[in-house]
């Protein structure tokens, strides 16, 4: 933040130089027999103040200072040095901020003021060589600040053009990156649709057919087929939504998120995940705090994914005789703790870093500022995660329930 504030402040301090010169020079010019009168102070301070606050009216500033040059010479004050310096500085401003036509008008006015200040007008008799020399000197004096102002203008324009080119280059790079990302998303969506969605749809169809092939099947088999059919149908719907989002990210709005997770349904969704694991044959004890229904959609979805992935890992790796516990609890400060543990003998064979599912969970939790651990526990495998309290939310006291 320092450059934007320092530059205008330093520029304004430079504009105070003629005013500071008037304050320091005029007392030094006061001599016995030739005192600095009130007119000198009025003209000197007026010229300094005009330059200090006339940045937005450079041509008017030059015209007024040129008039002050003539007035100062006619009155015979000691403020000529201050007015001349302010005039040169004003010409720099004029060349920096206005076009050639107005620069020419300002130079002509300043030249008349300087000529009247340097030479006793009218000339009696007019000496052409002297007139030419004086005119040349005045032109040289006026040319220096004008050239300096034009140089500063060219440098400023070059800087602006360079900045514009840099911005265009950055925009082009961002556009190319967006195009690459869009191409990658489209390719992923195509593969998901042509391969994964196709196979999941085939599984759902075959399970639906299998439910009707044996009308005398035992209730456990029917329940298992119904559960597989419901899970596959839900997975198919999620995959199709994912494909739609990958092809058109603009569909990722609040309306699109609404069917994915309603926070009020979160406790029921967690218990459904537990029930599916039990139906698959897992011995499972679960404790879900009902206050998690007050979570926002983002943290609620992360909580649901942790429980789903954790139970899936137990079913895949813990072994057929394993048992597991799931504990979801809210703390007094509004955070949520998730603990999933099993006593499977196959825990030692699992890699410490977990697979892609655990990696995704770790990234999801860390993005929310939480903690995630997965690895061997006392007798099996353990997953521990903490979702921090959302900013700006009132902490809710935990009320554990079985």
UniProtKB/TrEMBL annotation:
Keyword Transferase in record: yes
Membrane spanning residue stretches: 12-29, 41-69, 102-119, 131-150
Domain (Signal transduction histidine kinase subgroup 3 dimerisation and phosphoacceptor) ranges: 184-251
CDD domains in the cross-refs: HATPase_UhpB-NarQ-NarX-like
Coiled-coil stretches noted in the UniProt entry, renumbered to this chain: 152-185
EC class name: transferase
Ranges where the Histidine kinase/HSP90-like ATPase domain occurs: 302-389
Phosphoprotein listed as a keyword: yes
Keyword set, alphabetical order: ATP-binding, Coiled coil, Kinase, Membrane, Nucleotide-binding, Phosphoprotein, Transferase, Transmembrane, Transmembrane helix, Two-component regulatory system
Highest taxon in the source lineage: Bacteria
UniProt EC number: 2.7.13.3
Reactions catalysed, as given in the entry: ATP + protein L-histidine = ADP + protein N-phospho-L-histidine
Pfam families cross-referenced by the UniProt entry: HATPase_c (PF02518), HisKA_3 (PF07730)
Protein name according to UniProt: histidine kinase
Lineage, top ranks: Bacteria, Bacillati, Actinomycetota, Actinomycetes, Micromonosporales
């Amino acid at each position: 933040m320092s450059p934007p504030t320092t530059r205008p402040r330093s520029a304004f301090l430079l504009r105070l130089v003629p005013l500071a010169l008037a304050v320091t020079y005029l007392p030094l010019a006061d001599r016995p027999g030739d005192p600095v009168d009130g007119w000198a102070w009025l003209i000197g301070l007026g010229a300094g103040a005009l330059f200090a606050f006339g940045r937005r009216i450079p041509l008017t500033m030059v015209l007024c200072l040129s008039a002050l040059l003539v007035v100062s010479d006619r009155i015979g004050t000691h403020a000529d040095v201050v007015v001349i310096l302010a005039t040169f500085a004003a010409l720099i401003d004029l060349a920096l901020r206005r076009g050639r036509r107005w620069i020419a008008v300002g130079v002509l006015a300043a030249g008349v003021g300087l000529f009247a200040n340097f030479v006793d007008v009218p000339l009696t008799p007019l000496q052409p060589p002297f007139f030419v020399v004086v005119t040349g000197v005045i032109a040289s004096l006026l040319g220096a600040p004008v050239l300096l102002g034009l140089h500063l203008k060219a440098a400023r324009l070059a800087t602006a053009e360079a900045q514009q080119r840099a911005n265009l280059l950055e925009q082009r790079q961002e556009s190319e990156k967006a195009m690459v990302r869009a191409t990658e998303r489209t390719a992923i969506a195509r593969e998901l649709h042509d391969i994964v969605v196709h196979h999941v749809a085939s599984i759902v169809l075959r399970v639906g057919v299998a439910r009707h092939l044996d009308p005398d099947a035992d209730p456990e088999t029917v329940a298992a087929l119904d559960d597989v059919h419901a899970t596959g149908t839900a997975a198919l719907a999620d995959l199709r939504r994912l494909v739609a989002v990958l092809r058109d990210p603009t569909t990722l709005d609040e309306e699109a998120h609404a069917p994915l997770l309603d926070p009020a349904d979160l406790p029921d969704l967690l218990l459904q995940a537990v029930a599916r694991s039990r139906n698959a044959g897992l011995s499972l004890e679960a404790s879900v705090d009902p206050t998690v229904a007050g979570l926002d959609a983002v943290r609620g979805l992360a909580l649901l994914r942790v429980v789903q992935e954790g139970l899936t890992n137990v079913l895949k790796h813990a072994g057929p005789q394993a048992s597991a516990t799931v504990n979801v609890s809210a703390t007094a400060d509004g955070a949520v703790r998730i603990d999933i543990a099993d006593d499977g003998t196959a825990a030692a064979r699992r890699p410490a870093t977990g697979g892609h599912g655990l990696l995704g969970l770790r990234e999801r939790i860390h993005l929310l500022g939480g903690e995630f651990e997965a690895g061997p526990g006392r007798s099996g495998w353990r997953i521990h995660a903490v979702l921090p309290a959302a900013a700006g939310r009132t902490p809710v006291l935990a009320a554990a329930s079985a």
